[in-house]
Design goal:
This protein is an alpha+beta fold and about 450 residues long.
């Protein structure tokens, strides 16, 4: 069972005691709002902090400290969660009972994380400019490299354009221009304000009892400044589509396979969301290899090279991602929507529903197979205000009924379509599509 305590104002410690794993994990996550003005600073900051500290001034020294802790690893982490950003560090390390000499690592690892977070390598009272510039170059390379994976790039472009009026449209890396504008002085000022104002979520998973783990973290973060905390964090959910007609975004590029992506708003289902039913709905519609999109649109009709759906339960959005021939644009889009209508009208078998239930329950139970998966699961649950573990959640999913799933599908409304295709291809005119049924 997860134990949750408040160590300092706005600093919450979550402990899951278990001796199931050979390794423990400890994560420290600062919470802030997703905002176009600060997203690049959020993406840069953990990278820069991981470069060194007052005690360990460069990566060689940091790596040597990790080696002394039997290969512990401390990784900078930035995550976009709805319209929030979590940034900080994730540490994985050997459980005490498996160290060759029986030495305890928890306290030392916590101290290292605290050192990197609170005492960064600095010069003239600011973060080291050479570290900042180096990480800026790497981040810009990552941003430029997004286009190399056309499947991920098309998903990114759908979200960017579908949510162009909302913070959710921000990418977790920012833009090349916004990264270029960051300097050491500005990033230092932002870092200090973030430490003082951010709520902090800490997660520990391992065999140590919660009191010991809490004491280790409390000592490591004793110098964390606390000011006026920003509690105005959360995700705005738009129930309805932006326009009466689905918006169409088109992009040409040298690609051998078109990428068709559809974005839906889940409407009334998000007023009082049933997260178990949402998970099962997505699995039935397109989230598994037994889903309607996979078996019908891809396998039976061969309209797509791939076709799957993904759900963002924070934002109340459903996405469909597919790879198609450009000439199949209208047919593929029509069949994707047809499969959604079938779910909304209850045209699915008990066997299909049961396969979806089992797939979701299995995925949730697999979260208990590693400390990292548990950390990810419980952080999301905390940010949603939920307190049940993966086993309980799996049981809830196994009890989802056909009417619950159909109701979610019936409330989904197509809001935006993004199509990436070759420069020499001439797909059908979107204006000729009949969207009355969408």
């Amino acid at each position: 069972m997860l134990e949750r305590t408040e160590l300092f104002p706005g600093v919450f410690f979550n402990a899951l005691q278990t001796d199931k794993f050979k390794s423990d994990c400890l994560s420290v996550s600062l919470l802030t709002a997703l905002d176009r003005d600060t997203i690049s600073k959020n993406a840069l900051l953990p990278r820069v902090l991981a470069r060194g500290s007052a005690r360990y001034p460069d990566m060689d020294a940091v790596n040597a400290a990790c080696d002394e802790l039997y290969g512990a690893r401390v990784i900078p982490v930035v995550r976009k969660v709805g319209e929030m950003v979590t940034l900080g560090f994730y540490a994985g390390f050997l459980a005490d009972r498996f160290t060759p000499d029986g030495s305890a690592l928890l306290e030392s690892v916590a101290a290292l994380v605290g050192e990197l977070l609170l005492h960064p390598a600095s010069e003239g009272g600011a973060l080291r400019a050479d570290y900042v510039e180096s990480e800026k170059e790497k981040l810009i390379e990552d941003i430029r490299g997004r286009v190399n994976d056309k499947r991920a790039y098309s998903a990114f472009r759908l979200i960017e354009q579908m949510f162009c009026y909302e913070a959710y449209g921000c990418d977790d890396m920012g833009t090349e221009g916004s990264v270029s504008e960051v300097d050491a002085q500005g990033l230092t000022a932002y870092y200090r304000s973030l430490l003082a104002a951010s709520p902090v979520e800490i997660f520990y998973c391992g065999a140590a009892d919660s009191a010991r783990a809490a004491a280790a973290v409390r000592n490591a973060l004793a110098e964390l400044p606390r000011g006026e905390l920003n509690w105005e964090l959360g995700t705005d959910i738009r129930m309805n589509t932006v326009e009466a007609r689905p918006r169409f975004f088109e992009e040409t590029m040298e690609v051998g396979q078109g990428k068709l992506c559809l974005g839906f708003r889940l409407g009334d289902s998000m007023e009082d969301p049933d997260f178990a039913a949402l998970r099962v709905f997505n699995a039935l519609y397109g989230g598994t290899v037994t889903s309607k999109l996979f078996l019908n649109v891809r396998e039976k009709l061969s309209l797509c090279y791939y076709a799957s759906s993904a759900l963002d339960r924070f934002k109340g959005a459903l996405f469909v991602f597919s790879g198609i021939e450009a000439g199949n644009l209208e047919l593929a889009r029509g069949e994707i929507l047809s499969q959604l209508r079938d779910v909304a009208e209850g045209r699915f078998t008990e066997s299909e529903l049961n396969s979806a239930r089992k797939a979701v329950a299995g995925d949730l139970r697999s979260a208990a197979d590693s400390p990292g998966a548990l950390e990810h699961y419980y952080l999301a649950q905390t940010l949603l205000g939920l307190d049940y573990g993966p086993e309980e959640f799996a049981g809830m999913c196994e009890a989802v009924t056909a009417p619950q799933v159909a109701k979610i599908a019936a409330g989904a409304a197509l809001d935006a379509v993004y199509f990436l295709h070759g420069e020499t291809e001439d797909p059908e005119d979107w204006e000729d599509f009949d969207d009355a049924e969408a």
